[in-house]
């Protein structure tokens, strides 16, 4: 019986990642080399390819040796931008448009007197940058009860999300915050800052998992959007998160007639192609790939 290998409708770089890579590639060609504050995207294979073009990652502005620095697609706080200016460096900004929208939302909420609550990973660079636009009037968390740990629950609360979160999870979080913080004279604003492309890819991946016995999610293990794709699929079918084709365990394929492939928004087409080819090779049977 032939093995059916089906790929998600949307694969490869999202618009924001493609734009960021195009910008940094052009900068590296023009300058010979360029430094980026943190990884431009959370994908080792992509960063290795950029490294061959002369792109170097630094984790602190104090380590910049050149005259320019790249701000990653995850964005940065105003404090980081101010430091870049004070050092006389040129900023090459590749911030994703959806991340910039979340930053603007945080800035406006804070200016309007709202305490900003970001649903997201406090240690993620995107979330750190968004919080920076709230000028210290906010927190990032994945647990609504953390708001109750403040000395006093703010009367005015503004909610937004890290751009790569799962919409249904953000909805549940918002309901929990509402129950916790909505009291007499309270006011709450909820702003949808989840990336449209991320939302669409999650929906496509969910559909893929529902019709697959095995799903391979391709992408960086430090990539937030890739991990969320894994979480969605793992709740429905046997799922494995891999970075390269070499990580495929042949034992996963035993007895599997339908295999789904999806990938994070910072996974390149070449890596997806290598995984597909490796699957076809390992099955040892005719494959129908679409």
Describe the structure.
The protein has 290 residues and is α/β, with parallel strands linked by helices. It is built from nine helices and 13 strands. The strands form three sheets. The protein has a five-stranded parallel sheet with strand order 11-10-12-1-13, sandwiched between helices. Strands 3-2-4-5 form a four-stranded parallel sheet, with helices on both faces. A four-stranded parallel sheet has the order 7-6-8-9, with helices on both faces. Strand 8 (156-161), helix 6 (167-181) and strand 9 (187-190) form a beta-alpha-beta unit. Helix 4 runs parallel beside helix 5 and helix 7 packs parallel to helix 8 (224-234). The longest helix is centred in the first third of the chain and has 17 residues, at 15-31. It is flat and about 65 Å long. The chain starts with a strand and ends with a strand.
List the keywords:
single chain; 13 strands; 5-stranded parallel sheet; 4-stranded parallel sheet; alpha/beta
Uncertain residue ranges: none
- Anisotropy-based shape: flat
The separation of the N and C termini measures: 17 Å
The neighbouring-strand order within the major sheet is 11-10-12-1-13
Q: What is the average of the pLDDT values?
A: 92
Order of helices and strands: EHEHEEHEHEHEEHEHEHEEHE
């Amino acid at each position: 019986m032939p093995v059916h290998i089906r790929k998600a409708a949307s694969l490869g770089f999202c618009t924001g990642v493609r734009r960021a890579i195009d910008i940094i590639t052009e900068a590296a060609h023009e300058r010979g080399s360029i430094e980026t504050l943190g990884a431009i995207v959370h994908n080792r294979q992509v960063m290795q390819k950029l490294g061959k073009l002369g792109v170097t990652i630094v984790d602190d502005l104090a380590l910049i040796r050149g005259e320019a620095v790249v701000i990653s697609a995850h964005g940065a706080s105003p404090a980081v931008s101010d430091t870049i200016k004070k050092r006389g460096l040129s900023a090459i900004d590749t911030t994703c448009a959806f991340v910039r929208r979340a930053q603007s939302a945080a800035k406006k909420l804070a200016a309007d007197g709202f305490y900003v609550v970001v649903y997201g990973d406090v240690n993620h660079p995107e979330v750190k940058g968004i919080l920076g636009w709230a000028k210290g009037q906010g927190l990032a968390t994945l647990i609504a009860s953390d708001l109750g740990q403040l000395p006093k629950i703010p009367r005015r609360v503004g909610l937004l999300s890290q751009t790569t979160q799962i919409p249904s999870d953000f909805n549940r979080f918002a309901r929990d915050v509402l129950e916790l913080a909505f009291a007499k004279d309270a006011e709450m604003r909820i702003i949808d800052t989840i990336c449209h492309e991320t939302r669409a890819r999650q929906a496509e991946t969910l559909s893929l998992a529902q019709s697959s016995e095995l799903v391979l999610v391709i992408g960086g293990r430090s990539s937030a959007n890739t991990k969320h794709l894994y979480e969605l699929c793992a709740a429905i079918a046997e799922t494995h998160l891999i970075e390269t084709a070499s990580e495929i365990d042949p034992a996963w394929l035993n007895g599997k007639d339908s295999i789904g492939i999806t990938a994070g928004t910072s996974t390149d087409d070449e890596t997806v192609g290598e995984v597909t080819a490796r699957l076809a090779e390992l099955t040892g049977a005719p494959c129908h790939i679409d």
